[in-house]
Automatic annotation (TrEMBL):
Keywords, sorted A to Z: Coiled coil
Occurrences of domain DUF8156 (ranges): 1-90
The keyword Coiled coil appears for this protein: yes
Name under which the protein is recorded: DUF8156 domain-containing protein
Coiled coil: 65-92
């Protein structure tokens, strides 16, 4: 991959270009959210490149899901900590 075959990053950039008309149709408030989806895809590009999947959209979707799961886990941990502090009678805002 690289010289004759496009890399996953090349394919991801191509997918992002293909979706630009969709992005332009989004409300301005949602355009940065849409951009972050592709940032998640680029964030896991190394793993997706190792997969070398014939349909690059699939590793992109899994990358987005994984990034969202990570954020959800972080929020749950933070919520658990805050709930524990609240039940222990600790001040939440020091």
């Amino acid at each position: 991959m690289g010289r004759t075959n496009p890399t996953y990053r090349d394919r991801l950039a191509s997918i992002e270009r293909e979706w630009q008309s969709y992005r332009r149709g989004l409300r301005a408030v949602d355009q940065p959210r849409f951009d972050r989806l592709f940032e998640h895809g680029r964030g896991y590009a190394h793993a997706a490149s190792n997969l070398n999947h014939p349909t690059p959209e699939l590793p992109l979707l899994v990358s987005v899901l994984l990034a969202h799961q990570r954020r959800l886990d972080e929020r749950e941990e933070r919520l658990d900590t805050l709930e524990q502090r609240l039940s222990d009678g600790d001040a939440l805002f020091d």
